[in-house]
Amino acid sequence: MKLTLEIWRQAGPTTEGRFETVEVPDAVEQMSILELLDHVNNRLIEEGKEPYAFASDCREGICGTCGLMVNGRPHGADQNKPACQQRLMSYNDGDVLKIEPLRSAAYPIIKDMVVDRSALDRVMQQGGYVSINAGTAPDADTLHVNHDVAERALDHAACIGCGACVAACPNGAAHLFTGAKLVHLSLLPLGKEERARRARHMIDELETNFGPCSLYGECADVCPAGIPLTAVAAINKERARAAFSGKDN
After folding, report:
1. Where are the domains of the chain?
2. Are the CB atoms for 179 and 111 separated by under 8 Å?
3. CATH class of 118-245
4. Per the count of CB atoms within 10 A, which of 78, 86, 160, 176 is most buried?
5. What tens digit of pLDDT does each residue of 87-123 get?
6. Is 90 exceeded by the pLDDT of residue 192?
7. DSSP of 29-96
8. Cα dist. 2→27, 32, 89, 106, 123 in Å?
9. 3-111: which CATH topology?
């Protein structure tokens, strides 16, 4: 399988980047996007050249580290799959693949395809936690949670924080990410202690670093965890609840 790659090369955050063309005459359909980059890098290393920098960790679709863009789409052509699970069988012999970092004003480039996604971490720092009384662990049945509620909470907790939703949004919004966290923590008993405070602080941080929601739904289309678009509605719902509660919980 022959592919032509246009790969983003940028030495650092203050330098100008560019696309470099790389011909790959021996790609295999079963390769993932990351394995394709590994293949290219192995050849560069053998030739004494600098390999392309990109982020990865588990390569099992769990950690969300491998965010990048392929032909303008976060992660790749397949819907709801991270880059490490995107296979070349979705492309044809002779195709041109443009591989670049996740594009967003909130994601400054560190090097090549590695970006700084700490803006997402700052949203979580504002309220992505629960308050508990320290001491002996309570019995497992002390806090009752309805099965349907637990399943819904787990569906939203599945967000891996890859940041693809932000890159997919034309406004660079992180409402799907933040909404998923707010829904998850608002449904469980231990997350209710600081619910209003969490909503105010996380949404303030969201609006400081990211753009407004575009309402088009591109975010849900690329989300590897399949977070439903309804999570976006949690932003206004939790904001309104916090405003009318008049309390800090």
Report:
1. 3-111, 118-245
2. no
3. mainly alpha
4. 176
5. 999 999 999 999 999 999 999 999 999 999 999 999 9
6. no
7. TT-BHHHHHHHHHHHHHHTT-PPPP---S--SSSS-TT--EETTEES-SSTT--GGG-BGGGS-TT-E
8. 6, 15, 12, 35, 42
9. Ubiquitin-like (UB roll) (3.10.20)
